[in-house]
Amino acid sequence: MHADLRLALSQPATLGEGIVWHEASQRWWWTDIESSVLHAWSPADPAVTSYRLPDRLGCFAHTRSGKLLLGLAKRLSLAQLGGPELKLQERAAVDASEPRTRVNDGRTDRRGHFVFGTMNEAPDRRAIGSFYQYSLKHGLRRLALPAVAIANSICFSLDGRRMYFCDTVTRTIMQCAYDAESAQVAELRPFVQVEDAHAWPDGSVVDAEGCLWNAQWGAGQVCRYSPEGQLIGRHAVPVPQPSCPALGGADGHQLMLTTARQGLDRKALQALPLSGSLFGLRLDRPLAVPDALFDDDAP
Predict the structure, then answer these.
(1) Would you say residue 290 lies in a domain?
(2) Does residue 296 lie within any of the structural domains?
(3) Which pLDDT belongs to residue 298?
(4) Which residues contact 288 (CB under 8 A, 6 or more apart)?
(5) How far apart, in whole angstroms, are the C-alpha atoms of residue 295 and residue 223?
(6) Which long-range contacts (CB under 8 A, 24 or more apart) does 135-141 make?
(7) Contact (Cβ atoms closer than 8 angstroms) between residue 30 and residue 258
(8) pLDDT tens digits, 182-241
(9) Which residues 6+ apart lie within 8 Å of 273 measured at CB?
(10) What is the pLDDT of residues 4-61, one digit of tens each?
(11) CB burial class (10 A; 0-12, 13-18, 19+) of residue 286?
């Protein structure tokens, strides 16, 4: 076990997720999915900016024009920043004929396309979720990947030619060859099998050395894996449900992590009152890779 993460911002998020560092605004951005809120915050400013949304926000991406692409429960929308409310323009419906699913994890690939997955919210947790790529040029394209119960861990190698993803319930992070322009995938194979019986792989991010950081729900830890899938680091979090890591900060040295209160009963929350907060760790070297911006300048 390496250095522990410490409290960065106290927050009662029900389901904190999708955190990213945005260079242009010099702020961390994340969603509280079940509260339908998007947050933005800088450690230099104690005030948190929060945007109320008309639906749950599973994932999002900053765009080249300065807008936001929002992965709301059943649709993708572009949002214009500039006031206390976001002005939304719907771009694509998602799984319109399947009421059991909602948009979950997502990330922009290295070429400016948004890749995201859906999850089954029904109690049976059957594998009916899908992975999609979205761009203004091509619209919504389903990726030829196996159906999942809970799509998670979406991120890309430094050259953008390898995609990582998982179905959380299988405890296996997968990898595949990925072509951004054609939205084609191939050579599907396991990357990491999470062995801890209490750990469920959630959000992931790739660092400047090509290693993958994964938040492991239930186990209170963030693990770092080499490009070959070997465990090379494990950092404890003082709450049980870490959900998504991000790398960034003004000098690129910061690891930041969202967590969740969802599913914890009153007794557990009394014992773990910081659940839902942001936790951070200053790394000994800059490992952040700037998140790609969604290409909303495409025709």
Answers:
(1) no
(2) no
(3) 64
(4) 21, 207, 208, 247, 248, 249, 252, 253, 254
(5) 31
(6) 135/295, 135/298, 136/91, 136/295, 136/296, 136/298, 136/299, 137/295, 137/298, 137/299, 138/113, 138/183, 139/92, 140/76, 140/92, 140/94, 141/183
(7) yes
(8) 999 999 999 999 999 999 999 999 999 999 999 999 999 999 999 999 999 999 999 999
(9) none
(10) 999 999 999 999 999 999 999 999 999 999 999 999 999 998 899 999 999 999 999 9
(11) middle
Which positions ≥6 away from 278 have C-beta within 8 Å?
7, 8, 9, 11, 16, 19, 28, 30, 41, 256, 257, 258, 259
pTM score: 0.97
| DSSP bridge pairs for 256 | 246, 280
Distance CA 249, CA 42 (A): 9
1 lies in some domain:
no
Amino acid at 74: K
**What is the domain range of residue 238?**
6-282
Tokens of 35: 């509260």
Count the residues in the chain.
299
| Number of domain units in the chain | 1
Residue 52: CB atoms within 10 Å: 11
Q: What type of residue sits at position 114? A: F
Q: 240: how many CB neighbours lie within 10 A of its CB?
A: 19
**CATH code assigned at 134:** 2.120.10.30
Residues 6+ apart with CB under 8 A from 23: 248, 290
The amino acid sitting at 181 is: E
Query: What does the CA dihedral 158, 144, 70, 78 come to, rounded to 10 degrees?
Result: 100
